[in-house]
Amino acid sequence: MTGAQYGVLAVLNEQNTALVEFISVGLEKEEEDRIGRRPTGRGGLGLLITHPRPVRLADLSSHPESFGFPPNHPPMTSFLGVPLKVRDVVYGNLYLTDKQGWPEFTHDDEALVGALGLAASIAIENVRLHQRVKQAAVYEDRDRLARDLHDNVIQRLFAIGLSLQSMAGVATGSGVSDRLAEAVTHIDETIRQVRSSIFELGSEPNDQGVRANVLALARTLTPVVGFEVPVSFAGPVDTAVSDQVAEQLLATVREALTNVGRHAQATSASVSVTVD
Fold first, then answer.
1. How far is CA 108 from CA 12, 111, 204, in A?
2. 235: alpha, beta or left? (left if phi > 0; alpha if psi -120 to 50)
3. Cβ(13)–Cβ(20) under 8 Å?
4. Which long-range contacts (CB under 8 A, 24 or more apart) does 20-26 make?
5. Residue in 205, 275, 203 with CA at minimum distance from that of residue 239
6. Is the pTM above the cut of 0.70?
7. How many other CB atoms sit within 10 Å of the CB of residue 93?
8. Three-state SS for 99?
9. Is the pLDDT assigned to residue 64 strictly greater than 70?
């Protein structure tokens, strides 16, 4: 509709600092492959990121902020850029270059592309809203499952274990006491596995650090212990602890706090993690 030879729809990250998607039209696949890595929003393309308003240029390379073109990139002259914006929220930009049969893009082109940009902005906004809703639903289902596991499954297993322990204390048949004790051991192991699953369900995907995971585990086990357990850290916990050690550390803390809750009859406890 504008006579542009090349066009790009560029989507910004949610911090509006760089381009995360770069969908181009007008270049053959072989040309795109020769150009290589897509731009992230520097130079002339960055004009609309820092100042989200329409830009028309007769010669893109003559702009003072232009970085020029990468190797194997076709030369481009006339330029029209329009921000993708809804209610002052910027989602990306539309870039058009090389208007055919005319030295530069016109004011009418700018108005037309602005309308297209609004439609694209609404589409991007809807996609992101749907993604957030789906993510929230996943978190809600995961948290509900974790609560159900803790409130129902673990409590029932714990009650069965206590019943078996009491039966083992009065059992008189040959080997009955040993079999009951073995069953209690299996139940304890099942409880540990279920608690491990609850911990994994309760972990946010971005919580990669040891510090965050130990704190999350202590919070998760508060109902088991009977009170909140303060956790302190010393040394480079997040940077010096390997993934393998971190896995064993979490298992140790989980088992220790579980035993405190079940056996210690304590009114307070604390966890200290130190890397020397």
1. 26, 5, 49
2. left
3. yes
4. 21/92
5. 275
6. no
7. 27
8. strand
9. no
